[in-house]
Amino acid sequence: MDLIDKLQTEGILTEDEFCRLLWTEDAALRAKLFMTAQQIALASFGKQIYIRGLIEFTNYCWRDCFYCGLRCANKKLERYRMPNEVILDCCKTGYNMGFRTFVLQGGEDRYYTDEVMCGIIRAIKHLYPDCAITLSLGERSLRSYKELFAAGADRYLLRHETADSLHYSRLHPPSYSLAVRKDCLYDLQSIGYQVGSGFMVGSPYQLTEYLSKDFEFLRKLHPAMIGIGPFIPNKDTPFRHQKAGSLELTLRCIAILRIMFPHANIPSTTALGTLHPEGRLHGILAGANVLMPNLSPIEVQQHYTLYDRIGGVDGSLAENMELLGNQLAAHGYAMVVDRGDYVPEPKKEL
Ligand code: 5AD
Fold this sequence. Notes:
By secondary structure, the protein is α/β, with parallel strands linked by helices.
């Protein structure tokens, strides 16, 4: 029994085994890792790729995470809030292109009180009752999460970023805590959201052991969605001189997660696409099953700079969709018109 067989049967490896798998130079073992992950994704989802329309509706943030370009200390960033009509326009464009999930993502912006957010959620749900709404708004109170859920939000993305508390403290100001972040995730699950978590690969000070802790934490949380991507430096942050995470390590993490979580919705993230022109396709081939094209107007995208967009912003939505569609088609995959909800267990035949 090799490491892949063990991972598949037991759902977890020891720290030492994870580290070996992440760095193995054994070409056969590496090939088996990717092949197994791809086959599991095929068994769960076929060649259908779910799409989510990303709407980056505010880049104001009161937080100060060292890695992120939206951090409040970044005075160089031109800040914006999308008027509600623009958010609804993004949904309209997306709906007509076949999107059935909208992801409202923003910095932690106190302008968006529960009342304001609930108004936006209700407006979208009223116009597009057949669509799912995913929120990605950072840490809020249990009460707030409940209100947003009651207004119609279906899913919530909140990456834990790193499951090692010392590492967490090196990526964030001293008052932020991994424990609080985990509590938020458990709160969200208790309310009934489909919850997504995840981490950055190759973030500053990351040790391979920490990735093993990330896998372990995710196994405990058992999220409906898992978003990971390479760290990419942003020139206006304290991490401007740090190295970006690698494509290879990120792909190996995706493959490991797919083997651990056969039914989770795993996006091939924009950050992967930033590292390599076919990065997002590689993510799909390594076991991811979701793409999140950007519905935000291009003028807005250039101000939503979590990290430096090495190749500039994506082209227009239509261009981007065509490019992704062609890359997928070359391997027999296609994007589908579907909410793409999390289905924990295989559907039983009646
Ligand atoms: N590189 C890669 N990912 C980043 N994020 C924030 N800053 C960066 C960066 N410099 C990710 C975080 C956050 C998500 C919205 O974007 O993981 O949770």
